[in-house]
Request: fold
Amino acid sequence: MTKILLINPNISDSVSDLIRAEAQRSAAPGTEVEVLTAPFGVAYIETRFEALIGAYAAAQLAAEHHARFDAVVVAAFGDPGLAGLREALPCPVTGLTEAALASACLLGNRFSIVAISQRIRAWYRETVQSYGLEGRLASIRGLDEPLADIGSVQGDQGERLVALAERCVAEDGADVIVLAGAPLAGLARSLKGRLPVPSVDGVSSAVKHAETLAALQPGKARLGSFAPPPVKPNKGLSPAIQALLGRAR
Amino acid sequence: MTKILLINPNISDSVSDLIRAEAQRSAAPGTEVEVLTAPFGVAYIETRFEALIGAYAAAQLAAEHHARFDAVVVAAFGDPGLAGLREALPCPVTGLTEAALASACLLGNRFSIVAISQRIRAWYRETVQSYGLEGRLASIRGLDEPLADIGSVQGDQGERLVALAERCVAEDGADVIVLAGAPLAGLARSLKGRLPVPSVDGVSSAVKHAETLAALQPGKARLGSFAPPPVKPNKGLSPAIQALLGRAR
Amino acid sequence: MTKILLINPNISDSVSDLIRAEAQRSAAPGTEVEVLTAPFGVAYIETRFEALIGAYAAAQLAAEHHARFDAVVVAAFGDPGLAGLREALPCPVTGLTEAALASACLLGNRFSIVAISQRIRAWYRETVQSYGLEGRLASIRGLDEPLADIGSVQGDQGERLVALAERCVAEDGADVIVLAGAPLAGLARSLKGRLPVPSVDGVSSAVKHAETLAALQPGKARLGSFAPPPVKPNKGLSPAIQALLGRAR
Amino acid sequence: MTKILLINPNISDSVSDLIRAEAQRSAAPGTEVEVLTAPFGVAYIETRFEALIGAYAAAQLAAEHHARFDAVVVAAFGDPGLAGLREALPCPVTGLTEAALASACLLGNRFSIVAISQRIRAWYRETVQSYGLEGRLASIRGLDEPLADIGSVQGDQGERLVALAERCVAEDGADVIVLAGAPLAGLARSLKGRLPVPSVDGVSSAVKHAETLAALQPGKARLGSFAPPPVKPNKGLSPAIQALLGRAR
Amino acid sequence: MTKILLINPNISDSVSDLIRAEAQRSAAPGTEVEVLTAPFGVAYIETRFEALIGAYAAAQLAAEHHARFDAVVVAAFGDPGLAGLREALPCPVTGLTEAALASACLLGNRFSIVAISQRIRAWYRETVQSYGLEGRLASIRGLDEPLADIGSVQGDQGERLVALAERCVAEDGADVIVLAGAPLAGLARSLKGRLPVPSVDGVSSAVKHAETLAALQPGKARLGSFAPPPVKPNKGLSPAIQALLGRAR
Amino acid sequence: MTKILLINPNISDSVSDLIRAEAQRSAAPGTEVEVLTAPFGVAYIETRFEALIGAYAAAQLAAEHHARFDAVVVAAFGDPGLAGLREALPCPVTGLTEAALASACLLGNRFSIVAISQRIRAWYRETVQSYGLEGRLASIRGLDEPLADIGSVQGDQGERLVALAERCVAEDGADVIVLAGAPLAGLARSLKGRLPVPSVDGVSSAVKHAETLAALQPGKARLGSFAPPPVKPNKGLSPAIQALLGRAR
Reply:
């Protein structure tokens, strides 16, 4: 039995429902998934400032709940807090972007990202760059209208998203399409056969890669830059975060 | 039931045995693995010229046997022929390097590769570069003595390999160790707990990622650079390769 | 009169004292500096997880206090939260790393960073990479012993820091030395003439560049990726952060 | 009292007037600026060959006059001769491009350059690359008509320049606009509030950063690649350049 | 007398005729050229899979025939098998892409490639990347219609190819045009004076650079990654390839 | 008959003699070479400031003498003035670094540069970077003692230079050695067989590539960034340079 925690670092329960549904569809027999929603933050993250807030919310939830799980997923594209949690938690951690890009890199050379807004593109591009994968990024295209409802964007904007993906292939040279953002969880599955190249999303990729990491049992860093932070004075932090900070190697 | 074909593009049956054993240990319940050994080529690939031969041997085997499988793995580090087979085959294809690097990238920022010879390092470095991941490569270190027996290098050189890995962490800043090459299949598993950072190998990573790709069903490229090659005149090729070349989108 | 807020995202009052002293020494006539210390967090940041906490603490302080200032400085090397605050605040914002690297780039081609620990180097390297300046980074060298007292590291370890800087020039090809981290605030000044190449630190650089940004009055982004985040539902946030999130362009 | 020499490496007195006016507007109380015009060369630099000439002219003026100044600015975008003068002069030296890019990097992630001609773009792009900042360059856009009068381009082409800047934001993803070239000195100031993102120019940036370098007193290189050139035989050079070449560390 | 072998790794005799004609026009007095056509493979290479086949065919021909020659040229753009043959053969080896890019780099900063199809662009881009020259690649543009006859593409599509080249200069900033692919052999020569920037092709460049390598006599690698592959067991290979594999340093 | 002008941008007649001797040894039958020595400048260039002077001297000589030649070579490593002269002159131009790197790239993947001093390495590294070839640079190693006589460095330091080259192969992974600097002209030839990998020098490479460019007749740029500079007012320049500046396309 593999237990995976997916943390929605945003406050949108409707998006958590989308994440949960796709995670359950993706999970292998014997995998159990649980989704938690951030107790504070914004409806969805489009900017660096919102990501900063989401990272802290994700850290709080991860610190409190990780002990019951074999792997943790930061379930927002952009992966707020992922690198920090990888240091602090004793179990494997991944995020929607990292996982989707890992899938994309196994399916072709260059990938494009289809996203829910124009504004979000800069944050996504910087996330891709932070993973050293800008050389494989063909383009990022986003919807250009305000979203009526973050929970129903797949239905409201489905054809527009398909059209964006087709332009990524025809004009930008994409070999693979990444349908980005938790609000698009499940879209790759429901579009099966519609797109002219392989497509992946973050939630299904993260669940499968979390299962893989749990199965490979690659070990936790005792040295190097992902070992637990050195123990040192702290104050004003939640007991759960304090506990993580006190966990020396 | 997921069926995965692993192709050893070298002629060493003893290495095929190592690949098979680790693939079986790695496979999920419900996954069946089969290993085929190249009918022509060299004992193990260390150079670009040997990789050129191995690529053609891998292509021959893949063309003949792929139809019975859900995914194909090129089971030599350096992934000879992988990108070409990804175009030509209707199912997902991965390789030991690509798969091991995907695992490594999910476990830390920078990885080092521990290899079986000095000479092999240039070919590995170029393989990493071809995946656009040189920014995450901390170092490649290799054994510096001729191998007595390619099938028993793990036993003969185990402690030297551990020492190389420790230097990668201490001196090169590696967050993750990739134990490279089919002859090291299973070593990450048998060293569990010995290394100060997470470690992965190619065979177990390739099996898990092949399972993931089979499960995600991302679709096959009909357009873009991984669509099947355009149909055109050919001659002198095996019937199996001819059949692949005649498979228009 | 230019008023600059420096935010220490750590809880160490002794480090805030060092920051304040060097900021005052650096300030032009007519510049007023104020230093605030994070109400929660750790003693000093060495890791990505600690930076995540520091970013949130910095955001809280900035949200509450920015209105009285012409410019804000995130006063920890690594610049936790800087990019997010640049979006959210109406005034210019910089950080110790960004400012020190800007100075270094005006003084030579390649710079080295001298730091207070081994562990901190990965976080610094990633910070430099996030600014696209890895091509100008000659090396990062750090002290290799645990710090007795973060507030007195300059006195305790001064000669070791000089020796590290000299090796950066002789062995790594550095044209400029960046003395990194708030705990080293003022060291560049007190070492004047000791080092064989120009040296800079983060606090003095940040104060001067903040003065420059206030003087240039380059305008605030109304469009693009540094415009204020789009207004959307939020919950559980401090009134000050809520106010920032409600500030549409 | 800080004294800054700005060297116009071109022969256009009308451009020197623009430089002088903006430098005076930018200078802090207590800063004195002086502008010298090249005695030989071309009207304005658009190409590598013209830059080669301008570099030598700048070197002549710098060699003759630097002794009276605390800092020297090469006052043409493209910074002809800057790196060489940084080695040879005992005081800090900067240039319009270097200084404007330093400002831009403190205001956002990606910048675009708006320039006075199409031809000039290649030289500017290579200048940006030589500073290792191509990863932050969103685009370079230039006017596409011959200039009637280099000294009045701001007035003649003002609206076209604004339109180019707006396209850099909307189409190229620029966070900051650099208004490039000495002939545009002062334009950032006169456009205040017109552009949707922060904008900077080279002259004001260079004056402020020169003041900063004079204030920081970072020291002159005695070792490394910006130490004075090793003393060796020379002939046929002006006495002032001979004096610089004879200045051993 | 310098003897150069050009290997067409495709089965098209009509393309071999084009190669031979341009090679003879390019050869210096005292240079003798010979062109061999692959006994197996496809009509022309557009994809990675076809290149894998062409590489093996080129290796077979090179192994059998190299002994009579002073230099060998892999005469398909994309250079299938080139790096491997450089290890294995005792004489210098080059390829059409490598040689054309070397010429282009001696004529300007950025080059564009004009190609015979859309599909071929991805393979060419990866070839350029494998040479570390993506920073100098302005663009790759290709014909967008199926080719009626690979041997007569110059005549059939001449004006379209000129138009593509002109767009590379006007829109992509190319300083030099590379007319790519053996089917375009001789086009640079017949277009003399038609294009607004210098243009080169692969065959003439390869012949001249092969002459240069033969004249420079730079020596063969006895160490390093281009030394002959270490001798090891092999099976199922042609006698000629076996002989190459048995050639220890 | 092909006539090649080699311009020594330094004042050392003894180095011009070395250049002339190696150029004559390298030239094909029917090629005539002529070497001119700079009338002003320094004994040899090690720094950016000296290169700035050498560039202007090279430009003067090229402007005066180019009309009699089919190709021009800037005969100092570092290629002072090359890019500018390529714009301004009607014939092909190359330089020792550019030409040696072109040769090296045709012989292996990664090259090392062996140089005559420590100081010169920064300038060489920046030259390599300006050609976009840093990805292929294994290392730059230089002699670490002052040179007794620039004209006899090959004899005085021959064994030390060989030892440096061997370390480049063994420790840095070089596939090819570039023996750098006009003072080493001819050394690659006299060391034939001594080094374990192919080696090239700048003078012989430049002569051969100049012959190739003259033979290929690729055309002169009428558009793009290497077209002649736009005609505009100038003053104080030599008649020869004025003539170049007045040469519109």
